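Reviewers of the previous submission asked for a worked example of the structure-prediction workflow described in the proposal, so we include one complete record here. The input consisted solely of the amino acid sequence. No template or homolog information was supplied to the procedure at any stage.
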Amino acid sequence: MFSANTKYKPKLQILALLCGAFFIGWIAVTISAQRIPGQQEKSDSKQQTKADTEKLPLGIVKEKPKSGIFVKTKYGYMVPYKQPIPGTKLAVEMIPIPGGTFKMGSPEDAEEKYEDEMPQVSVTVPPFWMAKTEITWGQFDPYLGLHDIFKEFQSAGVRKVTKKNKLDAITVASSLYDPSFTYDAGADKETPAATMTQYTARQYTKWLSLTTKTFYRLPLEAEWEYACRAGSTTAWHFGDDSDELEEYAWFEDNSDDERQKVGTKKPNKFGLYDMHGNVAEWVLDEYDKKWYAKLKEKMKDGKPIPVAKTFRKPTKLYPRVIRGGSWELDADSARCAFRMQSDDEEWKNEDPNFPASPWWYTTEPSTGVGFRLFRPLETPKTREAKEAYWQSALKETRELAEERIDSEGRGARGLVDPGLFKAIEEFQKKRKSSKGKRGR
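From that input alone, the workflow returned the following structure tokens.
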């Protein structure tokens, strides 16, 4: 103990001041330290809020939906969405499909089957979105309408296609040789578009992808069957009784010899309509009668094959695979496993042009051939990979389209990007203004 002797008073005062300063500093540090977590949480909260409000890809939400269709992924939750069709008030409804493993093809004990549907092959498919219905004339016509616009652009020297930007260009189908052939089987804006070649369907997916900044393509054959089956193992997605098909499909028994409005029959369990009937649908694969047997050999130790490895890349103009049956075909053709093959020689034999159009067919059964959109969860990383889905796999088809445009003036070519329709509006305004001035 220190005495209260005056000799020590100055030292005691200094010591007291030092102790007091230390104590106050300790309290300040302690209080500050206690506040740091709260301040950090607030900062984190701000960062989280910013992340929450950051724009997610179309069809992805961060929070788990309280109801409805959704698929959980590492990016968030896939949900249904509507993809607006540029230049219109229309949209394509896209449905999320969960990933999984299924058996593609028909079992050996199936009552109805063909050799090219066997043997069955186990395939693993990652999540994706599929269009709720087939592409309709209302959704297809804006693409066709670009033909005249691109011609006008070319004449006016607007948005010129050059060697440097040609990658961003598409070709558009020429006018139909005989519109009655295409439209007599259904011209309503809500009926499925038909008679286009696979090349035309690919170009449509490129047009929509580049104008919306969202990647779309045609499905692979295995992806299509997986979406059609919706978890089923039966002949049709609803079962094995063909008598029930009229509830789910438009086919030769109930179609009144024409295409019908999409989405008017019952959907499958994934929420997809017209996977059976109405129009058969293009997929990307080349038809190979023995392809499933070749795939079976790739199954090591019975393990499923990743869907990407099931793709039969086209090496010739035809045949290509078409799935789902149509309004003019029988119930058997609408089975999940049924594989229809294209025949360009037969399907273009009424085309008076030589060579025949790369965009249109002129002969049945192409009146029952259309397509629907597919969007993978994982977008191809390179432009080259995307182009492989959008362009024809054959150089001769691409060259034929170019020749028809450059040498014969049939068909058109133009640049596509998010600013296309704004450019169209501005061009039409200027043209209208110019005509008005000449009129005065």
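The longest strand covers residues 91-97. We consider this example representative of the routine output the project will generate in years two and three.
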